[in-house]
Fold each of these.
Amino acid sequence: MIHSIAMDITTLNKNCLQCGKPVKGRIDKKFCDDWCRNAYNNRLNSDTNKLVRNINNTLRRNRRILDELIPPGKKIARISRHELIIRGFDFRYFTHTRISRKGLTYTFCYEFGYLPADNDEYILIRARLVEKELIKNGG
Ligand SMILES: [Zn+2]
């Protein structure tokens, strides 16, 4: 008798995570049926995949912009922040940072790095061509 009262109390305020209808049954039950559980998990996975895809696309676009701005065969270029933004560069996303021998922190999108310079400009580099000048991993 006590057990059945406890069950009633725990199921009283529980609603299906997918459709919101009251859930009856075990205490840990979160969905009314398999359909609701599958629908919920599919939506969750697709949101996660969408987030990862958007970030990957942004990183790839950043990489392509840096690649385009450094002339072929050159290892370094200088460009205004304005030009980067016009091309759609997103400063919020990067892959890693590295510190140069001079103690400067370069921000990277894959093999392309950038460093703030004066006059609101950036120094861009192709990492594999300046590898010996980069000594250790940054934050
Ligand atoms: Zn449901």
Amino acid sequence: MMQAKTPEQSKTILTDMVLPGETNPLNNLFGGELLARMDRAASIAARRHSRRIVVTASVNHVAFNRAVPLGSVVTVEAKVSRAFNTSMEVFIDVWIEDRESGEKTKANEAIYTFVAVDETGRPIAVPEVLPETKLEKERFAAALRRKQLSLLLAGKIKPNDATELKALFE
Ligand SMILES: CC(C)(COP(=O)(O)OP(=O)(O)OC[C@H]1O[C@@H](n2cnc3c(N)ncnc32)[C@H](O)[C@@H]1OP(=O)(O)O)[C@@H](O)C(=O)NCCC(=O)NCCS
């Protein structure tokens, strides 16, 4: 039995600026650049949780709620919110820091799925997640539903097998 871990144990924080080469014509951070930063932080979190080679299986949800202007200091925080057998859901929160006050405001969030694999790329089992805070418990509880939605949209399960989703409509 592998030792379960808390989301805090996989927490990964990546702080970096927005430079001119990373912006769109409105001088805001280019979406693909933010996706890459989130993928890196989430990948490190999944690796810390599993201590394995991890690959991005899917990007389940990304909300670009707020533009991130040139020169901003951006913090990407990733934590494993739930582990299944070989896959892990990683929650990513993105914050921007005000230059004068130092205050952080939430800019974006995303949910990625990673799979732990062996040296030959075959999926391999990972430890469980033990959520601690209220938010971690909420994210943990809803993760199975999101997994089923992602598998359904990918055509990997049939609607009838998406039990958690069906329960939403009953
Ligand atoms: C991710 C990958 C290992 C999954 O392989 P697979 O043959 O689908 O393996 P399985 O069917 O055994 O699935 C493995 C796990 O991934 C989950 N999974 C697969 N596709 C998924 C999707 N679209 N959304 C959510 N979970 C997914 C499965 O549910 C399973 O989870 P579990 O073991 O925790 O129950 C494989 O598709 C791969 O190597 N992809 C390329 C990854 C990569 O290179 N990413 C970088 C981007 S280019």
